[in-house]
Amino acid sequence: MAPRANWKGFLRLSLVTCPVALYPATSESEKISFNQLNRQIGHRIMYLKVDADTGDEVPNEDIVKGYQLEKDQFIEVSKEELEKIALESTRTIEIDEFVDKADIDPRYLIRPYYIRPDGKVGHDAFAVIRETIREMNKVAIGRVVLTNREHIIGLEPLNKGLVGTLLRYPYEVRSEQECFDDIQDVKVTKDMLDLASTS
């Protein structure tokens, strides 16, 4: 049985639109997780929310969100203010462009989803969109709002459905130069390569 859909809406390519649902393509259910325990008596350890200065526990009703301007200076942001600036979800994945798969740097890939028609209608339109992407032999790029945040999504045909992969924005990917600048230039000889490739 398929997992529960994470998102339902519409997929649009030019004049063709169909209802679709996004399902997680990966699972964390087999992942082993551990709890922290009190070694003396075996009870689970709880985490308390405490004031950073006083060390006193703070009840949930007294906790608010704040944006840090500079060290030790915050602006409180209310739930109502956050709701006012939240992105309106159009509930539509609008395909904006097509790119070669080789042009998508693997560092931009976040999370895959399976996309299928939602309900009994829309299978014909879905097939038209899927086969158009397949014929172009490219990745369709669109935008989707998930959890009040807009994401870029790359769409590719996969069997009878589509796989949609959330992508990072360029500003979210650090330059490799931060890590690689101080790597020494070494002349690698053929002998060294032969030695490394022998099994």
Automatic annotation (TrEMBL):
Pfam families xref list: Ku (PF02735)
Entries under InterPro entries matching the protein: DNA_bd_Ku70/Ku80, Prok_Ku, SPOC-like_C_dom_sf
Keyword DNA-binding: yes
Keywords: DNA-binding
Top-level lineage group: Bacteria
BP GO terms, sorted: double-strand break repair via nonhomologous end joining
Ku domain mapped to chain residues: 55-183
GO molecular function annotation: double-stranded DNA binding
Listed NCBIfam families: Ku_bact
Protein name per Swiss-Prot or TrEMBL: Non-homologous end joining protein Ku
